[in-house]
Amino acid sequence: MPAHDGFIVPHIYWYDEDTMLTKRRRAVWRRREFLVGLGLCVLVLSTLFFVLPSFVVWQQTNQNAQPPFPLGVDPVHKTITENQAAAILFSNQDTPVAAAVAGAGNFFDKLSQVIARSGLYQTVAAAGDVPQVVTIDPGLRKEQVAALFANALGWDANTEKMFLELPPISNEDLNDGTITPDDYAVSNDTSVVAVQTEIKNQFENTILSRYTPAIQKVVPLNEGLTIASIIERETSDPTEMRIISGIIWNRIFDGMKLQMDSTLQYAKAPSKGAWWPPVLPADKYIDSPYNTYENLGLPPAPIAEPSVAAVLAALNPVNTSCLYYFHDSNGVFHCSDTYAGQVALLKKYYGQGK
Hints:
The chain has 14 helices and eight strands. With 354 residues, the chain is mainly α.
């Protein structure tokens, strides 16, 4: 209270009951409005949480038709020509194909994958309340793909085997190289035939429709997918993919053995439960058509599921003089024109080489 000439002047406070009641009512309404708003936000976010993954899958499977793959290699004349269309696809993300090459995707694509892999979403999906999203990453074998669908749909061993065998809706087996890495929405009652059909359609829409008959006359589909599958297992970096593609084509042109460790892994597996086991020196002598250390040329078929980026790289190699390459312990890529150069680099980074 203010003081006046040494005296305390009392103040008289009036208690207005109506005013206080109005304030309390306003506070209650504000709390109610906040709770209603919060509830609406939770409702919207939870709806997006459970709807977004299946919507993104639907959007991916209903993309507009894409132009044919560019082509920059001529096996007959043993030449590699830089294709400007391929360079554009590898340098920007303005189209769905370019985004796939860069391993990118919009914010919602990334978010949907995070949601679909979360424990909460998987629990609700297992109860059958929302679709399950099975993500097929690039570089898997068909057996690994089968295991992912089996885990999501509760298949037994016989059903899983049936999935890999001749499907009734196709004239071909579900082989490596024909399963497009992507997100697939399934429900608990999705049949084996339905999954096979969706995989077949996705391969036709994403790869086969762009791998035109004109391209197949130059690089047959099996050869292109085989090279792409090797590239996919050797690196996930789009820039390195094209360089490794150039090295593979250089070796083919020069009549050299490919000597790719990933093909040894394919020939060796399954080994102690691992589909991609470590390569040992003795593995170079495995008796297998997939052993590119012993056999000249490409393996008879793809060894894994290649991404769009790997297929593009297989058809559009960098015009390089390199014939050898390796990744050092930090994952840095090195290549050499000669075996002597390769040995020198191995000694530099590993202290030994042969």
